[in-house]
Specification:
alpha/beta, Nitrilase/N-carbamoyl-D-aminoacid amidohydrolase, 2 domains, 6-stranded mixed β-sheet, 13% strand, globular
């Protein structure tokens, strides 16, 4: 005998699917909003329970298709809010990034489905906090190199809660955030079951669970925050004065950049020198949008200005390298050279020797950007398959940039003749912990971040908020002050605890001069950046070795008999 589903049953199933997908969508919107601010107030707490609606949907999803739909809707809506500016600038490029990114972001959730039939939904869910740090560290940062898909960056707006990442690194936030969401889900799920069985004890149950939640998830980070702020300053060194310059002019407008943008940087720098002494001037990424060493007119002009200012200048520029043996990509592009997004330090001493003693600066120490933005600066695998280079999204300026290597620190002298080592990182470098951990495990005393948020326009500040958040994470992980100079904002400073100060408004023209703390203290994370992901991997292995043969976990309230009042 054949079973035929009635139209009413099909309609009910469709309505149930729609409602559960709506729950997943609400969670994705929450996570997307968590990366933003409203009137300067961060929406980060939305991330504390953004996964709860998704977990309720996944609990009822029996088929692989439904499981996939829920996670994909959640991920796509999250990324749509975060990457809106990309879509507005290039709809096809932004749409492709969201479409593919949502698939990648769903990967850890699929692991829950794979283990659900063997371990039960809830126990499989408990694996997620161990899986996600590995996903962040291996898939997102190393394998795909797109850490903008981060679930944890939203918590950077709450530095009092994340000081522990000087031990675990940013992946520790993923562990904490997902474990918190799972605890809240289990608390609500058990509460719903308890309400059906014995509602009189629901209040006491909720009170106990909230007490556990605070004691486990919030009290230890808050106590650690108090601990490091009372003990760490004793390891700090002296302070120096640093100025960051913001031109307010999009550096990708290269046709008239020298007439407007470059001279804007010069004019603002003249103003900050007139306002008072500083030990270092920091210009943004692409402050000199050409090869400085090969541009005699620009080179000599800047040397004269640095001598006039009597102050070192750290600026973004481009650096080219002539090739004797031309790789396949450069052959395809018709180039006999490689180009690098770079940063250079121009000191008064260097300027004097170059102008007065005609010193050859072809071997000038240059930092070359090590982490390139996919599909805007380079196309993955294009070195092996040059035809892929046609997929580049042109945001203006140089494209098909080569991955840099070489020095991770530059040196200058302060007004009182102290020799300072600074680690320059350029824009996308901020998203990669390797950019800061490699250098700050040595004697680098602070970090200078040179960025350019302008290609995505001034409609949405989500990208600028995220770059600010990534800066704060790198500051806490490395325990270094960061001076961040941007073309259009935000330019600001962070102290070794991730606190922001001296911030310039979005798309404004000006400078900010502040004292920054120097330190050579190496955080535990800087010395062992892979320790926490390995610890999570060990936890996963231990879990699988210790499971019994009937591990399905059910809410404990289902097995209780309804009590009869006496």
């Amino acid at each position: 005998m054949q079973n035929h589903s009635s139209p009413n049953m099909n309609a009910t199933n469709t309505n149930n699917l729609f409602l559960s997908l709506s729950l997943s969508a609400i969670g994705g919107i929450q996570l997307g909003l968590a990366t933003n601010e409203v009137f300067g107030v961060p929406l980060s707490p939305l991330a504390w329970f953004c996964l709860v609606p998704l977990f309720f949907s996944l609990k009822k999803a029996e088929s692989a298709l439904h499981f996939f739909l829920h996670t994909y809707v959640f991920s796509a809506l999250f990324l749509s809010l975060v990457l809106t500016a990309f879509v507005l600038h290039s709809f096809s490029g932004g749409f492709l990034l969201i479409t593919i990114g949502a698939l990648v972001f769903s990967i850890p959730f699929w692991a829950v489905y794979l283990f659900k039939s063997k371990f039960g939904f809830r126990k499989s869910l408990f694996l997620l906090p161990l899986i996600w740090p590995l996903f962040d560290w291996f898939i997102i940062e190393r394998m795909l190199a797109i850490p903008i898909l981060s679930i944890n960056v939203n918590q950077a707006a709450l530095p009092w809660l994340i000081q522990y990442i000087d031990i675990t690194g940013y992946t520790g936030i993923s562990f904490w955030l997902i474990a918190l969401n799972i605890f809240i889900f289990c608390m609500l799920d058990d509460g719903i079951e308890l309400r059906k069985i014995n509602p009189t004890t629901l209040f006491a149950f909720s009170g106990k669970r909230f007490a556990i939640l605070f004691s486990v998830f919030f009290l230890p980070p808050m106590l650690y925050n108090l601990y490091v702020k009372s003990t760490l300053p004793s390891s700090f060194g002296d302070e120096i004065r640093v100025s960051v310059v913001q031109s307010g002019y999009p550096s990708y407008e290269t046709e008239d950049f020298f007439e407007i943008g470059f001279m804007q940087l010069i004019t603002v720098s003249d103003s900050l020198i007139a306002a008072g002494a500083t030990d270092l001037i920091v210009w943004p990424e692409g402050g000199i949008p050409t090869d400085f060493k090969d541009s005699k007119e620009i080179k000599n002009y800047l040397f004269q200005k640095v001598l006039e200012w009597e102050t070192p200048l750290l600026t973004g520029t481009f650096d080219s390298e002539s090739l004797h043996q031309i790789p396949s990509l450069q052959q395809y592009l018709g180039r006999d050279y490689k180009v690098y997004n770079s940063a250079i330090m121009i000191t008064p001493q260097l300027a004097w020797m170059a102008l007065e003693e005609n010193m050859d600066i072809s071997r000038l120490r240059v930092y070359r950007k090590q982490n390139l933005m996919h599909f805007t600066e380079r196309v993955p695998l294009s070195e092996t398959f040059p035809v892929l280079s046609n997929l580049i999204v042109d945001l203006g300026g140089e494209t098909h940039i080569s991955e840099g290597s070489g020095p991770t620190s530059l040196r200058f002298s302060t007004k009182n003749q102290s020799i300072i080592d600074v680690s320059p990182i350029i824009c996308w470098d901020l998203l990669f912990t390797s950019s800061s951990s490699n250098s700050t495990a040595s004697e680098v005393q602070f970090i200078a971040a040179l960025t350019n948020e302008s290609p995505l326009g001034d409609t949405f500040t989500t990208t600028a908020h995220e770059m600010k958040s990534f800066t704060r994470l790198r500051s806490i992980e490395s325990r270094r002050s960061i001076a961040k100079s941007s073309t259009t904002g935000y330019s600001f400073f962070t102290d070794p605890f991730g606190n922001v100060y001296g911030k310039l408004p979005w798309y404004s023209v000006g400078f900010s001069t502040e004292n920054i703390t120097l330190t050579t203290h190496a955080s535990l994370y800087s010395r062992f950046p892979q320790a926490f992901p390995y610890l999570c991997l060990f936890g996963l292995i231990l879990f699988f070795f210790t499971q019994n043969k009937n591990p399905k976990t059910e809410p404990k309230f289902k097995k209780r008999k309804k009590s009869t009042p006496k």
